[in-house]
């Protein structure tokens, strides 16, 4: 095998391990990751792990990066195809709900699990989780600000407050979708944000009625 071939095989192995790590962490948290579980899930020897990661903390940090990329590709990027303004803001919420509905991750959301796991544990992992969550909030606020600038939300709207509400209504789905009637939870979450945006939009016809 050529050097390029070995490098490609190594990269694919690393990606497969990280995909499994993020899936497991969405249920058990990052501390719940073990070499044994990941080795079984990916068919990789424990020695193979040490070719990619020097310690568990680096594996946790790389899992966060992989989860950020996954969220960007499957939630953020599809929403950006919607017209700029209030429609894009609502598209982001719908894209998030689609991610949960399709069960991309067994625990529905990697960040919901790990933020509660590391919120009071200082260190590099907590810092990276906080940065990722902060970037998400900043992105939602940016979409709110863009919608206001286009005259599609009232000038009186508080950017940070509305972003918080949209995020909170999406996050609430995670804990309810398996405890209650999942399809109904998703309908309620979608409708709650839709009605909130329509009430704040000078031209509510930009948004669906229901």
Give the biggest beta sheet: none
Distance between the termini: 57 Å
The 3D shape can be described as elongated
Stretches where pLDDT falls below 50 for ≥5 residues?
A: none
Q: Report the count of strand segments.
A: 0
Number of helices: 9
Share of helix, binned = over 70%
Mean pLDDT: 90
Question: Helices and strands, in N-to-C order?
Answer: HHHHHHHHH
Radius of gyration, CA atoms, in whole angstroms:
19 Å
In percent terms, what proportion of residues is strand?
under 5%
Structural class: mainly alpha
Structure, explained:
This protein is mainly alpha-helical. It has 9 helices and no strands. Helix 1 crosses helix 6 (110-118). The chain starts with a helix and ends in a 10-residue tail after the last helix. The mean pLDDT is 90.
Brief characterization of the structure:
The protein is mainly alpha-helical and 210 residues long. It is built from nine helices and no strands.
Summarize the helices and strands and which ones pair or pack.
Layout: H1 3-28, H2 35-42, H3 46-50, H4 56-79, H5 86-101, H6 110-118, H7 124-149, H8 159-176, H9 182-200
Helix pairs in contact: 1-2, 1-4, 1-6, 4-5, 4-7, 5-7, 5-8, 5-9, 6-7, 7-8, 8-9
Descriptive key words:
72% helix, 9 helices, mainly alpha, single chain, 210 residues
